[in-house]
């Protein structure tokens, strides 16, 4: 086992307090050492800690730095978070084309959240040319992985007839699939359709 790997493992133990007293500050220090030796998950963990201000002073800019480092090493979750950063201008200048690029890289590794967000970009023409067919393909790939927001978005496309024949019946089917997982948006859409939602509990 190399030093970087050992530092990352030890950092995880300190972060969760497993076998040692919990110390986010010590975890961050160890993650930084491992990240500087090109361990992508350590860089990603450090980005999360800066984003949440856990063990380090909260800094969206530093979170962006470490998400970028991890993303360039191929870390799918970091690529998704980097896409979100560019999408909403968190710790960096907003850049929808960069957001689409990083969502796409994460999506290519099967990240359901990235697939869903990239679908939204194609549905609405944000950072990419509007393409309902691509949006539906991406949403369905995400929905197949159990993503409730993607399932809700498919419902939206059927309700509005975007790239598919308009169908309230199909929309309701997808909304209910999503609502079963506690998706607030899906439950709200069912309410708008006048449907009974008494059996669903929205997630916080």
Offer a few descriptive terms.
0% strand, 204 residues, mainly alpha
Unreliable spans are: none
Cα distance spanning the termini: 41 Å
| SS elements, strand count | 0
Report the radius of gyration as a whole number of Å. Answer: 20 Å
Binned strand content:
under 5%
> Largest sheet, if any?
none
- The overall average pLDDT, rounded, is 95
Proportion in helices: 55-70%
Net shape:
elongated
The SS-based structural class is mainly alpha
The DSSP helix count reads 11
Instruction: Spell out the helices and strands N to C.
Output: HHHHHHHHHHH
Q: What features would you describe in this structure?
A:
With 204 residues, this protein is mostly helical. It is 67% helix and 0% strand. The protein is built from 11 helices and no strands. It has helices at residues 3-16, 24-35, 40-52, 60-72, 76-88, 96-107, 112-124, 132-144, 148-160, 168-179, 184-192. The protein is elongated, with a radius of gyration of 20 Å. The relative contact order is 0.07.
Summarize, please.
This protein is 67% helix and 0% strand. The chain is built from eleven helices and no strands.
